[in-house]
TrEMBL record:
Its main location: membrane. Keywords: Membrane, Transmembrane, Transmembrane helix, Transport. This is Major facilitator superfamily (MFS) profile domain-containing protein. The keyword Iron does not apply. One of its GO terms (molecular function) is transmembrane transporter activity. The lineage of its organism: Bacteria, Pseudomonadati, Bacteroidota, Cytophagia, Cytophagales. The keyword Zinc does not apply. It comes from the Bacteria.
Length: 282
């Protein structure tokens, strides 16, 4: 630690923590997380109340940041359309990826009748592809540029989600693996391109907070995928306990769940193309 150079320009020892901002942000995030994980039903009055609390706290957080002389987050950063689109896409992509982890095991074991060992082998296909494509995805970002790679990644994710919604009903296990093989490289391309694009359009003084916001949107997406999309799958299967469901019910649940995911990703992809030439506001 003694040999690490101090950067006086980046550190302001007189700054104080914005307590109202921290409190409103924590309340907003906690309320949203609880609303997504409360109980086993898809919609409950308590969940709706917590979502309302999260929305109001989030709005209050923005208000506090605008009036603060030392805000946690400069509200002006959200005028940057690149950041707004990236946060939304990051959220939805994380939701879809978590859906594969939640829905996949049930479909493989109950819908296709695989035992735990074989289901685990199939589930390892995605992480293996991630390992193999992570570094090449970064290299492509450096070669072709982040904006182009984000679009390619979103389309790969879109194609993978459509495949997961349709191919297992026709090709069974092979169709599921094809969907994962399309989805995972798209995810790696999107992550590399999206992170690079966002950081390229922010000032150095905001690198840390922007990186934190990206992580927050990803984590909220993971929570949403595990709860909302899991509940959607359960509602589509319409059998309790879910392990008693018939294979055709599981296929229908896959179709509905990933069909909804494909629609959401399609909207994000279209928005990305439509706004690709819009000027960036720093």
């Amino acid at each position: 630690m003694h040999y690490i150079r101090k950067d006086n320009q980046m550190v302001n020892k007189t700054q104080r923590i914005n307590v109202p901002g921290v409190v409103t942000l924590v309340v907003s995030i906690a309320a949203y997380a609880l609303s997504m994980t409360l109980g086993k039903e898809a919609i409950r009055p308590q969940s709706l109340l917590l979502i309302l609390v999260a929305a109001l706290s989030g709005r209050l957080f923005v208000y506090v940041q605008k009036r603060s002389s030392n805000p946690l987050i400069d509200a002006g950063v959200f005028k940057n359309w690149v950041l707004r689109n990236s946060l939304l896409a990051n959220f939805l992509v994380a939701t879809i990826m978590m859906t594969t982890l939640v829905v996949g095991p049930f479909f493989l074991t109950v819908g296709l009748g695989l035992n735990e060992f074989n289901a685990g082998l199939v589930m390892s296909v995605g992480p293996l592809i991630s390992i193999l494509t992570g570094i090449p995805a970064g290299k492509l970002v450096d070669t072709l540029g982040p904006d182009r790679i984000v679009k390619i990644g979103l389309h790969g994710l879109w194609a993978g989600t459509i495949a997961l919604a349709s191919l297992p009903a026709v090709y069974g296990l092979t169709g599921y693996i094809i969907g994962i093989c399309l989805l995972t490289p798209g995810y790696q391309l999107f992550q590399a391109g999206n992170n690079t694009a966002v950081m390229a359009h922010t000032s150095n003084r905001q690198d840390g907070i922007i990186a934190g916001i990206l992580n927050l949107s990803r984590n909220l997406g993971l929570v949403t995928g595990a709860s909302i999309m899991g509940a959607l799958f359960s509602m589509a299967v319409a059998t309790k306990p879910i392990r008693a469901a018939k294979p055709e019910d599981m296929l229908y649940g896959m179709t509905v769940t990933f069909g909804v995911g494909a629609i959401l990703l399609g909207l994000v992809s279209i928005q990305s193309w439509l706004k690709s030439h819009k000027p960036v506001i720093h």
